[in-house]
Design a protein that fits this description.
The protein is of the alpha/beta class and about 325 residues long. It has two domains: about 5-95 and about 290-325, Rossmann fold (3-Layer(aba) Sandwich), CATH 3.40.50.720; about 100-285, 3-Layer(aba) Sandwich (Rossmann fold), CATH 3.40.50. It is built from 13 helices and twelve strands. The strands form two sheets. The chain has a seven-stranded parallel sheet with strand order 8-7-6-9-10-11-12, with helices on both faces. Strands 2-1-3-4-5 form a five-stranded parallel sheet, with helices on both faces. α4 (about 85-90) links the parallel β4 (about 70-75) and β5 (about 90-95). The radius of gyration is 22 Å and the shape is globular. It binds NADP nicotinamide-adenine-dinucleotide phosphate. NADP nicotinamide-adenine-dinucleotide phosphate binds near residues 100, 208 and 286. This is Phosphogluconate 2-dehydrogenase. Its EC number is 1.1.1.43. It comes from Azomonas macrocytogenes (Azotobacter macrocytogenes).
Length: about 325
């Protein structure tokens, strides 16, 4: 008999067909709206598998799904899940690493370039018809090439960012991570630093670490004070790694020069956020992996992870291997 899958993210026709060949599928298109949430709650008691993204699946919801065997998240970040709870219940959680690494690094570099060269601010200025003579120093930006790139969280995305900075722009690379990465040091000539030293030395500080209990609020007023007034800060990890009020104060008071932000404490970013009134901010709507090709590759990866788990096999991208070890 086919197992029941609740899908809380729309798939391409090809992937939907693939999933439906193996499972009975219920699609909940908008689980964050009251109607969608009610339908999700109705579907959970029958669910053996869940597939989707960007939804906080806490115990309050998952307790409604006593038959649940596996969740396939269409993301690499797993901060929307309570890993201890899932592991205690024996539910396999998988994610979609690797397939989004290069695209997310592209986004990080786009933010870094746009912020340093004031691309959005000046493009808006041109569009508003204000370009009436050659620009002067009031409109100059900062160089990117040759400047020091500091990467906090030297994992897959951090490394792809280092590759762009080192080989593309001749940037000296500094990094901070849990552990030293000899292959990164060798390949990019990267230097390991404590977090404080990196913040003090780097011209660009880019966050590429996961949101965990340990990293929540990692960058606050004290850390911004360690950066210099010319420092450009880029966050493509998760909003809550940063104390957003402290970031706003640092940007308003010239403690740092500018910020390129893809992620925020609250998403969607509220329209009255002070960040949207600052000309030294480039804000994008959490588009790290949002290209046609990469989102399809992520969805494919999640479908295969889920079908593998529901077939009683170990999914390739298992996040909580302790569940498997107990079997
Ligand atoms: P990854 O390969 O697991 O890399 C994360 C790195 O962070 C690891 O190298 C880890 O160090 C380091 N790290 C973890 N906790 C740390 C801490 N407390 N202090 C210092 N370093 C720490 O993950 P990834 O694939 O690169 O993805 C990273 C994150 O990017 C994801 O978790 C997600 O939140 C975010 N992301 C955002 C978007 C977007 O749309 N903006 C898209 C994709 C991913 P060790 O290796 O030493 O343990």
């Amino acid at each position: 008999m086919k197992k029941n899958v609740v899908l809380y993210k729309k798939l391409s026709a090809e992937l939907m067909t693939r999933l439906q060949q193996q499972a009975e599928v219920v699609l909940i298109e908008d689980p964050k709206k009251p109607d969608g949430l009610a339908r999700l709650r109705d579907a959970l008691p029958q669910a053996h598998g869940l597939l989707g993204a960007s939804l906080k699946l806490d115990a309050g919801l998952l307790d409604l799904a006593p038959q649940l065997e596996a969740i396939a998240s269409v993301s690499v970040g797993v901060d929307n899940y309570d890993l201890d709870y899932l592991t205690k219940r024996g539910i396999l959680l998988s994610n979609t690493p690797d397939v989004l690494t290069e695209t997310t690094a592209d986004t990080g570099f786009a933010l870094l370039m746009a912020t340093a060269r004031r691309v959005v601010e000046l493009a808006d200025w041109v569009r508003a018809g204000q370009w009436q003579k050659s620009v002067g120093s009031a409109h100059f930006g900062s160089d990117v090439h040759g400047k020091t790139l500091g990467i906090v969280g030297m994992g897959r995305i951090g490394e792809a960012l280092a590759q762009r900075g080192h080989f593309g722009f001749g940037m000296p690379i500094l990094y901070h991570s849990h552990s030293r990465k000899p292959q990164v040091e060798e390949r990019f000539g990267a230097g390991y630093r404590s977090l404080d030293a990196l913040l003090e030395e780097a011209d660009f500080v880019c966050l590429t670490l996961p949101l965990t209990a340990e990293t929540e609020g990692l960058i606050g007023a004290e850390q911004f004070a360690r950066m210099g007034p010319q420092t450009i800060f880029v966050n493509i990890s998760r909003g809550k790694v940063v104390d957003e009020q402290a970031l706003i104060a640092a940007l308003q008071n010239g403690v740092i020069r500018a910020a390129g932000l893809d992620v925020f404490e609250k998403e969607p970013l509220p329209a009255d956020s002070p960040l949207l009134r600052l000309s030294n901010v480039v804000a994008t709507p959490h588009i790290g992996s949002a290209t046609h090709e990469t989102r399809e590759a992520m969805a494919r990866c999640a479908v295969e992870n889920l079908l593998t788990a529901l077939a009683g096999q170990r999914p390739a991208d298992l996040v909580n291997p302790a569940v498997w070890a107990k079997r």
